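SEQUENCE, STRUCTURE TOKENS:
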Amino acid sequence: MEHSNCPQSLLNHNTLVMQQVTGFMSNDFQILDDSGAAVGNVATTNDAGPRWLIGSRSFAVTEADGRFLMGVTDPMDFMRDTYELSDAYGNQFALIKKRFSMIGLRVEIQIGGGSTILLRGKPFGMEFVAEVGDVEIARATRRWAGLGRGMLGHSRYALDIRPDVTPLDRMGLIGGMIALDLIRHKASQNS
């Protein structure tokens, strides 16, 4: 029996709009569907001080109603950008690694026991293609956040996902978008 009052998981949407809602010390996002309705959130869970003092950063990805979907950890690592994705029980299910590339940015998402997703594109334009093998499974493009939000440096981009992508790969793609934003932020601070 179907219940119309049961919330639909953000993993069931084929277009997710990631909109930054805070800036200076955290990378929090609201996740919207294509019509602009909130379907999830990304909240920084331990950004209480300088990175060298607190070590790794972590984020919680939740459904719009607050149900925990997954955790994203940006461990303290020198000269490497790696990120870990964990399920609601704290078990790591994916590892995200920035790969060296002369042209653009390449990020690999290794789903434990599953797919390897390659994200490639332009980091400052926030335009990326996600592929498994030679098959495109998703595409991310920058969306206009509005003049005020844009002047504050808030990001907004859409992730269009093929309908046949598995829930675990969708979680990897969401984690990948968070990692790409963190990589972009780190690069802008170092330039």
